Amino acid sequence: MSSTGGSGEPPVLLFRKVDAAFSAELRERFRVLDFFASGEPLQAFLAAAAAAPEPPRAAVVVGGGAVRVDASFLYAVPSLLCVLSTGAGVDHIDLAECARRGVAVANSGEVYSTDVADYAVGLLIDVLRQVSAAGRYVRRGAWPVQGDYPLGSKLGGKRVGIIGLGNIGSRIAKRLEAFGCVIHYNSRKPKDSVSYKFFPNVHGLAAESDVLIVACALTKATQHIVNKNVLEALGKYGVVINIGRGANIDEAELVVALKEGKIAGAGLDVFEQEPKTQAELFSMDNVVLSPHVAVFTEESRSDLRAHTIGNLEAFFSGQPLVSPVHADFLVQ
Amino acid sequence: MSSTGGSGEPPVLLFRKVDAAFSAELRERFRVLDFFASGEPLQAFLAAAAAAPEPPRAAVVVGGGAVRVDASFLYAVPSLLCVLSTGAGVDHIDLAECARRGVAVANSGEVYSTDVADYAVGLLIDVLRQVSAAGRYVRRGAWPVQGDYPLGSKLGGKRVGIIGLGNIGSRIAKRLEAFGCVIHYNSRKPKDSVSYKFFPNVHGLAAESDVLIVACALTKATQHIVNKNVLEALGKYGVVINIGRGANIDEAELVVALKEGKIAGAGLDVFEQEPKTQAELFSMDNVVLSPHVAVFTEESRSDLRAHTIGNLEAFFSGQPLVSPVHADFLVQ
Q1: Contact flag B138-A289 (C-beta cutoff 8 Å)
Q2: Nearest by CB to A126, which of B122, B149, B150?
Q3: Domain A113-289 CATH (choose: 1.10.3720.10, 1.20.120.160, 3.40.50.720, 3.30.413.10)
Q4: B42-71 pLDDT tens trace
Q5: CA distance A253 to A258
Q6: Which of B125, B275, B279 is nearest residue A125 as measured by Cβ atoms?
Q7: The organism sits in which domain of life (chains A, B) (predicted)?
Q8: Measuring CA to CA, which residue among B166, B203, B186 is closest to residue B323?
Q9: Phi/psi of residue A118, each to 5°?
């Protein structure tokens, strides 16, 4: 087992590749048991950790599902009382089982919210105004040989339906208001704090929106929340943006809708079988494809480091976690 | 000479390709003398128009300089009293000569302002967050084979220096405020209506900005307003966005600065020798290249049609033009 740090520091399981700065800050404070560095199979790694003289009470787990914190994981290390996701999503963590075992869970809180909201707006402008596609047109020498690039579609005045008005969705709304968009939303229940029009279901939202933005967590309730019927309700001038999780959309139906012109375009930072994308989309200029980078900035990486260490220090000093996630975590 | 329309309607010179809807609306109201449809050389076309029994008093001219309304143009058609640019820029129109001859000039007013502002923000998000470049990475199958795409740079907190706080620049500022940017600006004089920090010169603005956005008109005073010294003041983490005119930037120096890493990136919708671009930029992933489409939406095209006809009808009925441009039109 690969571990570093002074023998006096509490052990922490690490299931994420971290950069040198993050690694150094962790190792100053904790005895890091690094799964990816260990080269061991998961169950062997967990068994060794559990059998150590001081079994670990906390784990840091990358978002996105490379390692799943499910019942068998938790069973293998019964000493665990704290699981921190370094992503906003916790769909890779069995929250019910954590709650049953008294394991506290936290996520990245608001560390990524502004970057993801910015990126969602960037994807939307790109799809409507064809920034990436027009750029490829220039780079292949087509301009002006093949004429002006076709007209795009104006952002101002668009009715934007946001699915999930949480930390990210509400920031997207605030940004798009500045562009003159009309904001609609769907969430578990109406929010008193906003005057946007609430839709109790996504089909109704799609029917009265020009753009759908998926900004909800992935749960059983939100898997394929954008399905064939929703895409049909959105219609042939409609655009879908996804900065949530790939499985929030029925991707096979999305590809069909794009191929058949049943919607106008899409901007996708996430994919259902990630990192597998859909090669059929590669030839479509009305689709912006992005390699799950909506959270990726130098600044958010640094913020995440401070936030994760803050959550760990809170846990080990018996304080409440900075960004706790509860078992009823659902679409916001 | 190609002309249509009833003999009772006033003749209008047209120096722009227009779509069917625009053409139909013009021809309902005016006798259109269409330069591009005529196939004639410019001077012959102008001479024939001037020699007609009812010489034209108004001309509609495309922005961007394909046709220059200079002294020889105006001399050739002394009947002209109104020149309408269908672009926001009027750098292709000799305003001093127009004023001397009593020729009223109008531009596209605010028709394009929101679309251009939206596009500027889109370019900025794209450069900072690498949307286009990451998209190309996905489309060539590099993800995840070659690993995650590198981290971008956060938009929030960036100090954005806007050159020209007119119809477009002020809309860019409003949008970027919603992203948490700090707005600085340079213009002829400070604006009482805003609390942004004013810089009397662009070098000072660049030195205290992370991003420079060119949103001014092209005039003698603003040609190469972003030069080698300004780029050096902006520095190696700086980004330049240009949705003004190509010649607002010393493009040769910009290419050098990008090649040598003296600035971090650029988003360019306009080029100095347009439509000639700079092929050296095609291989740079930190540059977003765009084929002068910041004004290109279905909606703005329709708005332009109504706006141009509004200006023509105002002129022919002796009313003030909707969006007059005066001879002292300079950086805003």
Answers
A1: yes
A2: B122
A3: 3.40.50.720
A4: 999 999 999 999 999 999 999 877 899 999
A5: 9
A6: B125
A7: Eukaryota
A8: B166
A9: -60, -45
